[in-house]
Amino acid sequence: MRRTASGLLVPEVQLQAGPGIAVTPPADGACPAVWQVAADGSWAQNATLQFSHALDGADRVYEQVTEVPALTIPRAGVWEVDYNARATAGMPASTTGAEYVTTALYKNGAAIVGSEAMIVGVNGAGTGNQATGGLSFLHTFAAGDVVTLWAYRIGQTGTASVVSNADGRTRISMHWIGPTGDTPA
């Protein structure tokens, strides 16, 4: 802004916002003009959950862990995904064999390749185990994609479940980090 013989000269300003950037103009008549530029790093996350989901399907056949609410992606782009699952596996004292629990995230009803995690396993009569494990990875989503947790058991002679309580939580959390087409350097 500068003073000229014909009056005050205010240069024209054009601001273009990229994905995830919000530009808020000043209020009408505000002087000096203050523009606010902010980055919006969206989050999506389940609440703190308390449940026990028995896995009783066939070997290596995924079933949805319906107690973990589905997450709907609010913005297209590259997301950092982090999920944990607490699983239990047990073998009766009178039975020999092995029992394992594997989890994965699904997008729109199909497994996200690379999200699979074997969480816990037991081998032998009278054994039991529980653990919390998971993965962090980057994945590209479209706005409106739906992410869900699925699990399967390996073995049919013991017990297997996915649980969440104060001893170990099962959850999905995601953070938007870049627009669609963003690639690593």
The SSE order reads: EEEEEEEEEEEEEEEE
Write down the overall mean pLDDT.
Answer: 87
Structural class: mainly beta
> Helical content, roughly?
under 10%
- Count helical runs: 0
Coarse morphology: rod-shaped
First-last Cα distance:
39 Å
Biggest sheet, in brief? 6 strands, antiparallel
Strand content: over 45%
Radius of gyration: 25 Å
Secondary structure: elements and pairs:
Elements: E1 2-4, E2 7-9, E3 21-24, E4 36-39, E5 43-45, E6 51-54, E7 63-64, E8 71-72, E9 77-90, E10 98-107, E11 110-111, E12 117-123, E13 128-141, E14 146-154, E15 159-164, E16 171-178
Antiparallel strand pairs: 1-2, 3-4, 5-16, 6-15, 7-14, 8-14, 9-13, 9-15, 9-16, 10-11, 10-12, 10-14
Quick gist of this model?
The protein is mostly beta strands. Helices cover 0% and strands 51% of the residues.
Structure description:
This protein has 185 residues and is mainly beta. Strand 10 (98-107) and strand 11 (110-111) form a beta hairpin. The strands form four sheets. Strands 5, 6, 9, 13, 15 and 16 form a six-stranded antiparallel sheet that branches. Strands 7, 8, 10, 11, 12 and 14 form a six-stranded antiparallel sheet that branches. 0% of the residues lie in helices and 51% in strands.
